[in-house]
Amino acid sequence: MNTAERRNEILNFLQNADEPVAARKLASQFGVSRQVIVQDMAVIRAATPGILSTTRGYVIQQDSSCVREFKVRHESNQTAEEMNLIVDCGGRICNISISHRVYGRVSAEMDIRSRQDVNEFITALNNSNSSALSNATSGYHYHLVEAASEERLDLIEEQLKKAGLLAPLQPWEQNTKQEGNEE
User: How far apart are CA 74 and CA 58, in angstroms?
Assistant: First the structure.
């Protein structure tokens, strides 16, 4: 079984599970190390909305909301503008990820739902010795955004484009989306 086949099987396993599935159980099931499963799950979670990592294991979130990933690019001083635009249109920023040429896909959970959340995030970032994750990729990054309807997601996309923050997908990114993010 190659990597892409194992990842598809892991996703199927999670979809059919009635309870959270621990990484060690998946490792045993697929005959690989726990670390391989953790790496697989990072890739699967980046491509599949709604997979949560809990203290008891991985679980697929069951809800009726809509999600979409947006590729954006902006300067550091536009971070609050971008995030406020998304939450003002009714979106929740679930995560941020970058596609790094050396490290591959790197993601971080966010859960930004309001202007207050945006203010707290910006304050924490400004008060730290760290920089935004997107600085590693010249401002290019992705946000997985959840909203109550596809229409809200369309509005968010329209507003990001209008503000000049939406970045076009490269041909390889479009193929990755269509082919299920196989490596």
Answer: 33
